[in-house]
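does this look right to u?? alpha-D-glucopyranose version
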Amino acid sequence: MTRLLTLKLALLLTFIGILHANTNAQEINKMDWFSDAKLGIFIHWGIYSLGNTSESWAFHNKRVSHTDYMAQLDSFTASNYKPIYWAEIIRKSGAKYSVITSKHHDGIALWDTKQNNLSTTHKSPAKRDLLTPFVNALRNNDIKVGIYYSLIDWTHPDYPGFLKDSSKYKIEDNPAKWQNFIKFCHGQIEELSAEFNPDLFWFDGDWEHSAEEWQAPKIKANILSHNPNAIINGRLQGFGDYDTPEQNFPVTRPNLKYWELCMTMNDSWGYQKNDNNYKTPYEIITIFADAISMGGNLLLDITPMQDGSIPKTQIETLEEIGNWTNKHQEAIFGTLGGMPQGHFYGPSTISKDSTSLYLFIPAKISGDIVVKGLDNSIKSIVVVGNNTQLNHRIVGKISWSHVPSLVYIDIPENVQDKYMSVIKLELDKPLKLYRGKGGFN
Ligand code: GLC
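got this back:
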């Protein structure tokens, strides 16, 4: 009897073990494309794209009345919307995924939602579902599909929040009303799953309510029942797969397996006529290199106008980024975050087998670069994108010490990239770093 019990227990433990291993394997798997992708393009498009107000926040913060804000619906035409062109310029930028707003905090759906009639299909001269053709174009271009969905819905009559200093009601005073809203919100998410089967759900606005109030576990379970490989961003009150720092640049490497910096090209998430404070291609490229060096992705925002055309500066910037990512693709896509700070004064990445080390060098430099604490011998050094072989000098090797030497590498100016040069160090064996203090031990 005791032996039988022991056997049963052993079987049960093995079973739990297998279950656990499977879950981990599946999780690792589903995040693979995301960590290889590195660059995504974010798109904020809605009635705010007329260019006069910020997205949703304009009425919430009482810059305009809710009525005036919503009146922009009448001028939202999408008359020059070219989803195939959008997908093409995104592909050419090197981005491997794109995330588009299906509904911002203003509550206006860009698809033909059946949960209410507040959509571009029913309430604007655009008169159609704008998501389907873009989602199709992305898939035809082999770009992963991300759908942004705002949990907050300041226009919905059953949603409590409204203006910055007033709410429609308190959940504890009217739980039934909140349940109506949750039914609506879960219903929309369900539609998005069913109609678009997104590779990635990008939630926003979770901060207004708790996981319990949103019924976040249920949202996650429903999404995964449609697509077990769907990725969820970190704005579902603890039920997401990765973190989304916004506009703020980490200085030290975040202690996170997966993360994504989302960033505007100028200072606005949606198109604003008067915002010309654009980041230059050089700035975006260096920010991008920094993010991937620290094991993250960059989700870079573009802001189409109400008719669907994309501002010229944004197109030009995407093209510049595309030339650079294309030239340096082996150092970017499918690599791992690079060396911790201290070994090299700049970003770096490593190949998955750890035998190629890529160093990113901002243009233009005239002196040698130096690598410290590299406990490997170097088989070759080349400039990525033009294959120029580079020489290096081993400096300060002490015969009796185990502390690695310094490596000085000269990069002639004529082989440097106008934004960031990348050089590849082919190593004798997987990267090994010395992190000591230079003493005897
Ligand atoms: C913020 C804002 C929003 C924007 C989003 C993008 O949370 O509420 O306007 O869409 O960030 O990350």
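Residues 2-37 form the longest helix (36 residues). idk if thats expected tbh
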